[in-house]
Amino acid sequence: MNSTIANALLVARREISVRARTRGFLVGLALSALLVAALPVIPKLFGGPDSYAVGLVGARSAALEPAARALAPGEQITLTFTRLPDERAAHAAITAGDLDAAVVDDGRLLADGDPPQELGALLQGAHRAVQTEQRLRAAGLDPARVTEAMRVPPLTEVSVSTAGGDSGVRAGVAMLLVLTLFFLLISAVTQVAMGVVEEKGSRIVELLLTSIRPGELLGGKILGLGALGLLNLVVVIAAGLGSALATGLAGDLPDGMTGIVLGALAWFLLGYAFFSALAAALGSLVSRQEEVSSVLTPMTTLLTAAYLVAFYAVTEPAGTLARVLSLVPPFSSMVMPVRTAAADVPVWEVGVAALLMLLAVAVVLTAGARIYRSAVLRTGARLRLRDVLPAAR
Amino acid sequence: MLEAEDLHKRYGDTIALRGVALRVRPGEMFGFVGANGAGKTTTMRIVMGVLGPDSGEVRWRGEPVTAAARRGFGYMPEERGLYQKMRVAEQIAYFGRLHGMTAAEAKSATGALMERLGLTERAGDPVEALSLGNQQRVQLAVALVHDPTLLVLDEPFSGLDPIAVDALAEVLAERCRAGVPVIFSSHQLDLVERLCDSVGIIAAGRMVAAGPVEEVRAAEGRRSLRVVVRDPAPGWADGLPGEVTADGDGRQVLRTTEGDDQAILAAASRAGRVEHFGWEQPTLTEIFREAVA
Ligand SMILES: Nc1ncnc2c1ncn2[C@@H]1O[C@H](COP(=O)(O)OP(=O)(O)O)[C@@H](O)[C@H]1O
Ligand SMILES: [Mg+2]
């Protein structure tokens, strides 16, 4: 038993050290991380910046600053204010791009074209508050009472959607998860099949199997390539979260993000175990790399079907299809993490889905190892499952 | 000592082995000879545990072979196989570890072996960048790295030039001297005769002869009488057993495995000048031809 684990780890280490050095792996890792890191930046590019420079000309305008500063955090923007001697200086600074807008004492808001929408709204709000307060005081009301009356708490925002308060962002996160899980699963699992065929086609498997058992060889391969896939997933998630923090988007992330991430990792492992066992069994039927993709078709079809359902679950996390298939293995491995990201899912459903998936993984691993064991030494023409299964018994 | 007893194996309708037995003692070099399809590879795969026999048994040091015992064996399969993209030194060391060596042991054994086989300069190259001859050496290194207790090599000499043949023969002889039983298959009988202590001849899944080379050659009924007569009268051998062939220079050679040698000698003397007369042991090639015929 001990030596079984030691042997599998030996095989896994070889897989990792050989594969991790290939250009394909490094490029894939860098590219996927970059892609995901770029995503939080995109809304920024289209939504404009969230820090603005505002010029103030004259004493009356200057009174705007505290009011605007008080409003800014609510809109999640930061403001910097500059005092300017006259309107000409404001003109020049705006034209040069140093200022986004400037407020002039006689009640005008200068900008290069229309002011940015959220900045305009904020300055108008601040202006209205300051003016209202001054006019009330001018009308002879007790300044203290005026200040008191002006302190209006904002409306509390409450969502009535079942998806929770941050459904937009959650859907985005879920969508990202679907894509990431799909691509990482399919690439890791294809690696397993290609590795199996490499060893079978080059006949090295005959040599390997004189010193270790087929289960150890297959297990080690699945373990090693799975570790690399998991590493890739962690890197992608870290890149996404890091970028979200850096761009200030992290505040928009749904509560329970940690749970969503950990869940995604766990479901990735389950899905990977299932599909890689399937891929290894199918891969062991052929001896040439050119035949890999065709022999993997049943598995790719299943995985793509899971992907499509998961994709649908992003938009309809509470739909019947999503609810049912999030319990059925192997669909659950992609649909459930997406559902939990997109909406709140009862814990018992997650538990049932995980249990069923674990059972399915056990069945597929056992059957896959059997098929592999009996097929991997039979080089030459492509084998059919029918050729292999009786011998496997 | 390695023993195989009454091995039977069939693939569908093809019967590959019909009761193969062999025995290789410590320090003995055993040549396994047979035509294509005779069952050599099947037998060696069964010894290495890659294939299970339908019936029969393989024993190592008197016990049925266990996985642990097999881990100590070294094997060169007929279908050579290496990781093409893996570096030479890493690959040899990896196999050392698969055979149960620690990382340090594997590393030092790999270094020594690469030195011995002239691979040191290629240590960091991927196997695919090596010439075929060097790839063969890596294949051999992979079989030897863990200092095997038994060596099983399937057609190790095929495709080698004469110098490489000698080099490989020397490496194998070295293992033998260290007390390791070595078994290799070949269809180059002269090579087997030159290198081996023992030989097994297999035809159509049956061992037709096995044992020390001298014993096999001397086996009863295999000796043949060779008579060389110069300028004999025509038809001198009519009525004598065996075959007569002309040897140019007016010589005729009679060969037979049966008959009264004294009567034959008398007949030959009457016919002409007898230049040679004697019972001879057959060469392995002759035994082999006879077995295959
Ligand atoms: N995997 C296999 N499937 C079917 N027949 C096989 C297989 N391997 C070997 N045979 C058959 O078994 C017989 C013995 O083959 P083999 O052991 O390879 O002989 P050798 O190594 O002496 O050339 C041959 O008739 C061969 O065609
Ligand atoms: Mg052969």
Automatic annotation (TrEMBL), chain A:
An example Gene Ontology CC term for this record: membrane
Domain named ABC-2 type transporter transmembrane: residues: 25-368
Membrane topology: Multi-pass membrane protein
Protein name stated in the entry: ABC-2 type transport system permease protein
Parts of the chain that traverse the membrane: 24-42, 173-197, 218-240, 260-283, 295-314, 350-372
Domain of life assignment: Bacteria
Compartmental location: Membrane
Organism, scientific name: Thermocatellispora tengchongensis
UniProtKB/TrEMBL annotation, chain B:
Domain of life of the source: Bacteria
Gene Ontology BP, a term: response to antibiotic
Keywords of this entry: Antibiotic resistance, ATP-binding, Nucleotide-binding, Transport
Residue span, ABC transporter domain: 2-229
GO cellular component annotations of the record: plasma membrane
Location of the protein in the cell: Cell membrane
Membrane topology (UniProt): Peripheral membrane protein
InterPro entries to which the protein is assigned, alphabetical: AAA+_ATPase, ABC_transporter-like_ATP-bd, ABC_transporter-like_CS, ABC_transporter_ATP-binding, DrrA1/2-like_C, P-loop_NTPase
Protein's UniProt keywords contain Oxidoreductase: no
Gene Ontology molecular function: ATP binding; ATP hydrolysis activity
Listed Pfam families: ABC_tran, DrrA1-3_C
Keyword presence, GTP-binding: no
PROSITE patterns: ABC_TRANSPORTER_1, ABC_TRANSPORTER_2
PANTHER family, per database record: ABC TRANSPORTER ATP-BINDING PROTEIN, ABC TRANSPORTER ATP-BINDING PROTEIN NATA
Record-stated family: Belongs to the ABC transporter superfamily.
Protein name in the entry: ABC-2 type transport system ATP-binding protein
Organism from which the protein derives: Thermocatellispora tengchongensis
